[in-house]
Amino acid sequence: MIPFPSTRLPFGPSLWLAARLLPLYAARGSLDALLAGATPAPGRRDYRDVEPARIIAAVKRYGKRPWLMRNRRCLREGLLAFHYLLLAGHAPRLHFGVIASSLKSGRPRAHCWLTV
């Protein structure tokens, strides 16, 4: 499970720290574990005063030039935006598309995106 920082931190520092920790957990965990870790407990709305546009802009800013997860930027940004949009009281959906022919290679290629 991804230990997202305590929401007692202000939004910006919390997101900055989560963006730094996520690649470390992604290297060791399964996609199921990443999704479970990015989903806060039901009813938590710790950043309800943060506008969606601010969340997306911050995720893009902190997701620039990742040292780790370089080839999985959409996953990194998607999980971060998903987590913080949920905490802001929105209903984001994380979508995945897989290139079927890549499943045979042992290294699947995919893309993820978010809708609100």
Chain-wise SSE layout:
Layout: H1 11-26, H2 31-38, H3 52-62, H4 73-87, E1 93-98, E2 110-115
Antiparallel strand pairs: 1-2
Helix pairs in contact: 1-4, 3-4
In words, what does this structure look like?
By secondary structure, the protein is mainly alpha-helical. The chain is 43% helix and 10% strand. It contains four helices and two strands. The protein has helices at 11-26, 31-38, 52-62, 73-87; strands spanning 93-98, 110-115. Strands 1-2 form a two-stranded antiparallel sheet. Helix 1 crosses helix 4 (73-87) and helix 3 (52-62) runs antiparallel to helix 4 (73-87). The longest helix has 16 residues, at 11-26. The protein is globular, with a radius of gyration of 14 Å. The model has no long low-confidence stretch (mean pLDDT 84).
